[in-house]
Design brief:
By secondary structure, the protein is an alpha/beta fold. The protein folds into two domains: 11-86, Signal recognition particle alu RNA binding heterodimer, srp9/1 (2-Layer Sandwich); 88-150, Signal recognition particle alu RNA binding heterodimer, srp9/1 (2-Layer Sandwich). It has two helices and eight strands. The strands form two sheets. Strands 1-4-3-2 form a four-stranded mixed β-sheet, covered by helices on one side. It is globular, with a radius of gyration of 19 Å. The protein starts with 17 loop residues before the first strand and ends with a strand.
Length: 150
């Protein structure tokens, strides 16, 4: 409702997009990660890659910001030189509810290669199949084949 109490001319709600900042040990890997993620998920694409130009504080052509979709969900990414204060942490993870064991296994195999596993791929009390891990870029993922609820 607007201040006058009317629902007419109501503004659209804001858009919420996950924004990943690649820094420290992951600096310089944002574009590689974007291309990697897009290659693994159906209904995914790179929307744009914006690069730094002449006269900026970073090398010309370096990624400033990129937007991409994974399975129809929009993400953005950037890079910043700096210390680990912007490092990725498992306290925030990308959760993927998979439709089949084959899909989950394929994603786990691709995404976890070179990463660190927190909970190995397997059945758990709350899931038919589940895995939690950091990929080689430091992004934390939780993949699940949910139990069928009655």
């Amino acid at each position: 409702m607007n201040p006058s109490g009317s629902t007419k001319n109501r503004a659209e709600p804001p858009t919420i997009t996950t924004f990943l900042t690649f820094s420290a040990a992951q600096y310089g890997k944002a574009e590689e990660a974007i291309q990697f993620y897009v290659s693994l998920f159906p209904d995914s694409q790179v929307e744009y890659l914006e690069r730094h130009g002449e006269g900026e504080h970073v090398p010309v052509g370096e990624l400033r910001r990129g937007a991409f979709t994974l399975a129809g969900q929009r993400f953005m990414a950037t890079e910043t030189e700096g210390d680990d204060r912007f490092a990725f942490t498992p306290a925030f993870s990308l959760y993927v509810a998979c439709h089949s064991a084959e899909e989950l296994t394929r994603l786990f195999t691709g995404l976890s290669k070179g990463g660190k596993v927190h909970m190995p791929l397997g059945p758990y009390p709350s899931s038919q199949l589940f895995a939690w891990f950091d990929d080689k870029y430091g992004i934390s993922w939780q993949l699940e084949l949910p139990k069928i609820r009655e």
